[in-house]
Amino acid sequence: MQALDSFVHARKRAPDYCETDYWIGLTYLNGNMGVSQALEALKEGVKCKYTKVMAGKPLTASSKAFIRLQLTPFPPIRAHFARQRRLF
Q1: In the chain, which residue ranges form alpha helices assigned H by DSSP?
Q2: Residue of 36, 29, 31 whose CA lies nearest to 57
Q3: Can you give the pLDDT at residue 74?
Q4: Residues 57, 70, 23, CA angle at the centre, nearest 5°?
């Protein structure tokens, strides 16, 4: 992806410019290219005083989604067993 390559190149050229981590994280998320890479980049984005709030929002949303998924055990399996019980 051209945007990701541009942000990675910018980070290499100017490592002190901290906003690139935020944009790299968003590019990974929006392009469905890797949640773990996106979260790592966004964690770095939170360290930047310019992108701290912006990077925190997707991190918070991701955390809530992971917690929600872990608290709802296997919904498709539950639905399958619910249908099985109706047959008997």
Answers
A1: 2-13, 19-30, 35-46, 52-71, 75-87
A2: 29
A3: 46
A4: 25
Q: Which of 6, 28, 27 is nearest to 17 (CA)?
A: 6
Identity of the residue numbered 28: Y
| Amino acid identity, position 4 | L
Q: With 0.85 as the threshold, say if the pTM is over it.
A: no
pLDDT digits (tens, 9 = 90+) for 56-78: 888 777 777 776 666 444 455 55
Other Cβ atoms within 10 Å of 22 Cβ, number = 24
Measured between alpha carbons, how far is residue 38 from residues 19, 22, 26, 78, 86 in Å?
14, 9, 7, 31, 43
Do residues 10 and 22 touch, judged by C-beta distance below 8 A?
no
